[in-house]
Design a protein that fits this description.
Residues 1-96 form the DUF8069 domain. This protein has three helices and three strands, in the order ααβββα. The chain has 96 residues and is mainly alpha-helical. A hairpin with a 4-residue loop joins strand 1 (54-57) and strand 2 (62-65). The chain is elongated and about 80 Å long.
């Protein structure tokens, strides 16, 4: 058997192409949390308070995320946490 011509060998090309596709799939399934602005965070926290998911503690100026029992002093931190927490719960449900 003769050695294959390295110019005609496309195995590496295929591997790189497949790796790019996998990376794109992973990007599509990830929840974006880094782009939560102050206005968006306030709106989300207000919705969460209205739905009973978050309890504000006025004297301490904190928000308590009831399902996880985690306290936050920033609406942005809480919004990012809740998005990630929700994404993780949804991923667990899909994995079952």
């Amino acid at each position: 058997m003769t050695n294959p011509n390295p110019i005609d060998d496309t195995a590496d090309d295929y591997s790189r192409f497949e790796a790019r596709l996998v990376a794109q799939d992973q990007d599509a399934t990830r929840v974006v949390t880094a782009d939560v602005g102050e206005t968006t965070a306030r709106q989300l926290v207000t919705e969460l308070i209205d739905n009973g998911v978050v309890t504000p503690v006025p004297g301490k100026r904190v928000f308590v995320h009831e399902p996880s029992e985690t306290a936050f002093d920033s609406s942005t931190q809480l919004a990012v946490f809740h998005r990630g927490w929700t994404a993780a719960r949804n991923a667990d449900k899909e994995g079952e």
